[in-house]
Design goal:
Layout (H helix, E strand, L loop, with lengths): L3 E5 L5 H14 L7 H8 L1 H6 L5 E7 L4 E9 L10 H6 L5 E9 L8 H16 L4 E6 L6 H8 L1 E5 L11 E5 L7 H5 L1
Parallel strand pairs: 4-5
Antiparallel strand pairs: 1-2, 2-3, 3-4, 5-7, 6-7
Length: 187
């Protein structure tokens, strides 16, 4: 990708990935760090690098050597509460891959990094096996987030349409690519 390299994060990328994630929750999400929502940010290695069915990707800006974008897959279904029961029922634990922390630093947006990360993450979820659905949620207050996800995924529930507005987030399902058989992958 020209000035950028997207790769699976290693131990040496954890601090840079954490910085991107924390900056995003403070600047864009404006929630700040909330332990029950963001524990994976504090210990990305435990959340993404060690579990077999999880991954964390990073995008490095090659000229600066800085990690400027992240994206992960977690073996985690949406819980109720806080999510609507219909969402939790649709995406059961064990068979749901959750896309998470697809964040790009503002000065590196509009270079195709988020789209490239999502492409790689969906490929990972398909290749690891056992997943039947690919779920994500987004906060529509984040500039550009809702239109981006609408261009790639199917809305499952917009909490703003629920009585009381729920958490105000939008839940999506992404198409899960067909799993490539091991023989074909080796060719």
């Amino acid at each position: 990708m020209g000035e950028y390299e997207i790769r699976v994060a290693g131990d040496g990328d954890v601090d840079g990935a954490r910085a991107v994630m924390l900056d995003t929750v403070y600047r864009d999400l404006r929630s700040g760090y909330v332990p029950r929502w963001h524990a994976d940010i504090i210990d990305p290695a435990a959340a993404y690098l060690r579990p077999a069915r999880c991954t964390l990707l990073v995008a490095e800006h090659l000229p600066s050597g800085e990690i400027v974008a992240t994206g992960g897959v977690r073996d985690r279904a949406p819980a109720t509460p806080p999510n609507p029961p219909s969402v939790a029922h649709r995406f059961p634990a064990g068979t749901t891959a959750q896309l998470s922390r697809v964040y790009v630093r503002p000065e590196h947006r509009r270079h195709g990094l988020a789209r490239a990360l999502v492409h790689e993450l969906t490929g990972f979820a398909a290749s690891v096996g056992g997943y039947t659905s690919l779920y994500l949620h987004t906060d529509p207050a984040v500039p550009g987030a809702e239109p981006f996800w609408r261009s790639l995924a199917q809305e499952v529930c917009d909490e703003r349409d629920l009585p009381g507005g729920g958490q105000g987030i939008v839940h999506f399902e992404l198409p899960l690519p067909a799993r490539v058989p091991a023989v074909a992958a080796a060719l």
